[in-house]
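Hi Y.,

Following your request, here is the sequence exactly as I used it, all 493 residues.
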Amino acid sequence: MISTQLPALQVVIPLLAGPTCLLLHHSRLSWGLATSASWVALFISLALLDQVLATGPISYELGGWAAPWGIEYRIDEINAFVLLIISGISAITISFARASIEHEVHNKQVYLVYTGWMLCLSGLLGIAITGDVFNVFVFLEISSLSSYLLISLSRDRRALTAAFRYLVMGTIGATFILIGIALLYMMTGTLNMSDLAARIPSVSDTRTVKIAFAFLTAGIGLKAAMFPMHFWLPNAYAYAPSAISALFAGTATKVAIYLLLRFFFTIFGVEFSFETMKLDRILLPLALAGIFVASTVAIFQTDIKRMLGYSSIAQIGYMVLGVSLVSVTGVTAAILHLFNHALMKTALFVALGCVFFRVGSVTRGDLAGIGYAMPWTMGAFVLGGLSLVGIPLTVGFISKWYLIVAALEQQMWWLAGLVLISSLLALVYVWRVIEIAYFGTPGDRSTEIKEAPATLLIPTWILITANIYFGVDTSLTVGVAERAAQALLGNVS
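Below is the corresponding structure, written out as tokens. Let me know if you'd prefer a different format.
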């Protein structure tokens, strides 16, 4: 039955669609194929999540070779949720992408965007679904190499510098990850995640395992743009084509945070990661520093995409903060924010894509009075911004509520206060955009600016609607996040 092959099809369909887009060498046909593949991947993710919630984890043995000798795809609550995030964001943003990409990329290179898009999607899905740590590295390289291509295809020549910086930093991160994996293999003789989790406790007191832990933490932290290893992210988001910025904002760093969760809680285990290595004592101050430093820097940005880039660094800090609390509620908040931040930040980037389509700029000064010329676009941006701040009835509020509850459970009143204060910084940089858009003096070109076409507005408002819907009905998101956190933490309360 085809239902038994869904784990393999989840990766294979976009992986085959990539080179097929290249062979088609036609922008519209490539977009149609990539869009179809993205939506199929989304439906597969939904089916896998439903199956996991109903019957428990799924183990798929590639080629019929049993783990640990063969490669295993293993799907449980946490990575089923991540698969849904990746495929969902890809499906919606690629539906937005056609007009936007044709506007921002040279005509002869448009088909390359969809080639790279499919390879990036395949790599991200592969990272989330695989139960083999070496395959994590392989899929990481697939997604990374295609990401460098996607950023560089922008008409803005600064994108080449941003892509090169990302390449250098990404290569360093991938090298660290590969070294960590190699050291674990040297000590345990296995690459299967479940097998590693069983064997590491017997060698956890060795220097080699501790060094492997350090390399993996640094490498994955760099890929996640965790403060202070975040320098590649703002330019990559700012100068990539708008649809690519939206895709990356909703998926790439989320997958890296998933890897942190998988390595810290599943492979190394809670006791080793947080009692032996004292990782929470490192993550907590770095998370807070990232939240406040990045939020403060975002306030002074004139390029709105760069502003959202620094905002993403701060939001990653919230996820890391939840992890550092090492409690079911804290990890629930971190997992929940993976989903919620993907919705809110993707919505904001596609709204900016609508602005760029009509204005040709997302510099704050060029947005004066645009709220009246593009009411639907800027209305979407306002609602997405309110979600980012954490206003009630939005997904941003749900994330911060669980984070505050997690802090209060551990009697960390000061931490709950800092989370609330940090929301005010987000309000400041969101308000600066709203102020210029609605109260700024329109320029000479304001009468020429029209609302974005429906092909761009519909995906934008689907995302905005999701920001509101999942801020009101949290049964799916909170339910899955809690189950995933309990599975990761085991008996830890």
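The CA atoms of residues 89 and 316 lie 17 Å apart.

Thanks again,
Q.
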